[in-house]
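Hi F.,

I've been meaning to write this up properly since the lab meeting, where we talked about keeping a consistent format for the predictions we share between groups. The idea is simple: the sequence comes first, exactly as it goes in, then the structure tokens exactly as they come out, then a line or two of notes. No screenshots and no reformatting. I'm using this chain as the first example so we have something concrete to point to.
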Amino acid sequence: MPQDALGSKSSGKKRAGGVPRVRSHTDAELQYYRDQDHDIILPASFSTCHFGTRARLHDLFLHIEKEFEALYTENLALQEKVENLTERLERESMIGERTIGNDENDAASTKGVLKNKLSGPSSQKVKAANKLRVQTSKIVSSFKNDSVSCRMVREYVGHRDGVWDVAVSRGGTPVIATASADQTACIWGIDGGRNLLQYTGHSGSVNSVKFHPSQDLILSASGDHSAHIWQAAITPDQLRVHSSEDEVDGSDREDEDDGGGIGGGGRLSDGGGAASLRTPLRELTGHTSVVIAADWLPGGDQAITAAWDRTANLYDAHTGELLSQLIGHDQELTHCCSHPMQRLVVTASKDTTFRLWDFREPIHSVSVFQGHTESVTSVSFTREDKVVSGSDDRSVKVWDVKNMRSPLATIRLDSPVNRLAVSSTNVIAIPHDNRHVRLYDLSGNRLARLPRSNRQCHRRMVCSVAWGDDSLGARCNLFTAGFDRVVYGWNINSFKEGKD
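Output, unedited:
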């Protein structure tokens, strides 16, 4: 805003442009007010100007905020329309396939007529129609094998920020674990849907959680540059109490941290709702940046961590000792995963590669897999000797561990891929930035997409997915975690399985 020269007085008139002059007080005048014994009293024109400007700015920001909210709401509505139109196109394509099948016999009888017409002016139209029919057949073929039903069963709500990761217990107690940006990790009863235990030992975002293969332990990775091993003992009484409709008083859980001889260092408290655990059994240190993921090696005696300092560390899970540091990636690591039965580890990185580390021999070896064009966001082993990788380049690739030259299958998608998971029946669950979760087999054939009807779906990106263990006997066998602070439990059922 234009002002008079320093120390000059305003005439109170407006300039030709209609902008009023505002008086600027000199340092001497302000010092005079400070030197008075009484409180500082600024001239009315000084305070009125500043308060008027503040009110005007406040109104402008409110207007901007309303405009942004309106645009956001309109964008959500448009996205819903696009999804509805896409589903409608899929249904019409399936109907079109039946029409094509019925017309195949007619096509044979009219083949001679078409040959005569091809020499006429309408030949281009006929060629275009045939080309469209072929393309339609290809589109339909990607939808006709939708042999999987998907139904949302349960939601798990309680985190105060986005949920980065979800994991399922490996047998025994039917519980899941979640890692959140609110600096906590939680354990939930699968059927009850309530928070049973909250771990608050990290001082940064909790980025990853993994259940121990055989013990009541959890390995969590955090933005505080460390990974923690902590007790996660949940009794059947807790599950029964939290599965009922009554309020939980927690009086039966006060001393459970001493059970099983595991929780020597942990302190378990109960604030009337979920129990709270603050102290880990082991703290794995050695990284100089964010620890983005961690996993147990087979047997659970060792643990692997991946961090933004471009290294992966191998630890002794009993002592917390750093055994080996894996170096080779050119950029930050994004994920790590261990083979369920063999001493094999894969690490993914923003350098567009993932590496396979073989610890089956005293001197470990490493293989580099190249095939993505952007950051590799996740890697997962199958029960066979295959690795599935997902990337920000909107693709998922299936690899043979023994052949790193080219993938066995490539799945092209419409959105970047986050932390995927492979089921015991070799079904790949793929979470996306665009809030969708899609299911494919290892050959690259699409099986299904999780429904997004009646607002029973994620409102923001889906960060992670995890398959449940069939031995748990729970109704939910797939879990999806989103940055909308919610975890959903789904029942995925194959029609073929239902007939058996």
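Notes:
Residues 1-25, 97-119, 137-144, 244-272 have pLDDT under 50 and may be disordered.
The helical segments are 27-35, 44-109, 111-118, 123-141, 236-243, 495-499.

If this format works for you, I'll send the rest the same way.

G.
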